[in-house]
């Protein structure tokens, strides 16, 4: 089958992802074989491409956000059949979905509701799962006493879905950060009650908006550089959820306020083998939220055809750090 693959880690200006012939995926007992119809593009995949190369003589196929059709099921699969429309993520230790077909554990995927297109379905898994697990520590609700939530990076994929999930499932006030007029408008449209500019004085902007402190901060980008003002706006015994734990993070100011710190990585259930089926359940719930009109898909840019050119364009958009919503490639 055809897949987009590369050998050595590389920067965008030396983009070396090519369409090549690769072996068909090998199904494990709990796997689904899925014909890929659309893939979402994520900053994490661009980071992997820059930092991780294949072993000598090998190649890497990335892509951990997809929508498609079940073509085969393993002998230990329950609840899925050939022909089902599904969306999901996968396993970073295996080949991803930048390919005609991908094999994944059936517990990390969910059926796509009939009214949802493959393109829009592919915009949901990574951002939805990350936001859900970062915010809802007790099932599907915020921690007790959390009435004010601040989302750093409100116009990105995680931030956009986090805003919608909080507004649709709780009565909490949502503050989003956005630095450009178009990203501010998008964040407001997704339900943010207050939008502030993270490149300016955030505490002062919050005071001007009548918000003295917040109970929970979800930081999707720039956490290390923003930790000073994040600590200032968090109340004592508040909560900080971080999805970009890169670089040294000074915990001293957080400790002075007894802040609870949660780091979030969407593949943890698969990597650790812990409640793997929880991922599929969250995705199924997200699909029902879309059907009920509580959550909107976040596709803003659609590229057509799984080619080296479209993937390079997608990575240019992601690495430009000005993307609103989600870029999806329709296969």
Automatic annotation (TrEMBL):
Lineage of source species: Bacteria, Bacillati, Actinomycetota, Actinomycetes, Pseudonocardiales
One Pfam family, short name: ADH_N
Protein name as annotated: Zinc-binding alcohol dehydrogenase family protein
Source organism: Umezawaea tangerina
Family matches, as InterPro entries: ADH-like_N, ER, GroES-like_sf, NAD(P)-bd_dom_sf, YIM1/Zinc_Alcohol_DH_Fams
Domain Enoyl reductase (ER) residues, every copy: 10-329
GO molecular function term, any single one: oxidoreductase activity
Signal peptide: none
């Amino acid at each position: 089958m055809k897949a987009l693959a590369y050998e050595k880690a590389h920067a965008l200006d030396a983009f070396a992802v090519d369409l090549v012939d690769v072996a068909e995926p090998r199904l494990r007992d709990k796997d689904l074989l899925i014909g890929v119809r659309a893939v979402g593009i994520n900053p994490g995949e661009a980071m992997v491409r820059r930092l991780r190369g294949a072993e000598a003589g090998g190649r890497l196929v990335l892509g951990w956000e997809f929508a498609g059709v079940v073509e085969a099921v393993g002998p230990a699969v329950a609840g899925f059949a050939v022909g089902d429309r599904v969306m999901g993520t996968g396993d970073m230790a295996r080949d991803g979905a930048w390919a005609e077909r991908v094999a994944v554990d059936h517990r990390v995927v969910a059926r796509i509701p009939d009214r949802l297109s493959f393109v829009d379905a592919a915009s949901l898994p990574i951002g939805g799962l990350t936001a859900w697990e970062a915010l809802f520590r007790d099932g599907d609700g915020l921690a007790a006493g959390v009435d004010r939530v601040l989302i750093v990076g409100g116009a990105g994929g995680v931030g956009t879905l986090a805003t919608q999930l909080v507004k649709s499932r709780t009565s909490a006030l949502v503050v989003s950060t956005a630095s450009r007029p178009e990203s501010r408008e998008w964040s407001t449209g997704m339900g943010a009650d207050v939008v502030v500019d993270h490149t300016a004085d955030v505490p002062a902007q919050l005071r001007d908006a009548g918000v003295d402190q917040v109970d929970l901060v979800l930081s999707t980008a720039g956490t290390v550089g923003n930790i000073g003002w994040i600590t200032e706006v968090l109340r004592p015994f508040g909560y900080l959820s971080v999805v970009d734990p890169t670089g040294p993070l000074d915990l001293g100011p957080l400790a002075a306020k007894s802040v609870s710190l949660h780091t979030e990585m969407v593949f943890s259930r698969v990597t650790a083998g812990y409640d793997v089926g929880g991922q599929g359940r969250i995705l199924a719930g997200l699909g029902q939220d879309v059907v009920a009109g509580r959550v909107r898909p976040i596709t803003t840019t659609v590229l057509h055809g799984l080619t080296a050119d479209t993937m390079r364009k997608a990575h240019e958009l992601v690495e430009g750090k000005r993307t609103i919503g989600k870029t999806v490639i329709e296969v």
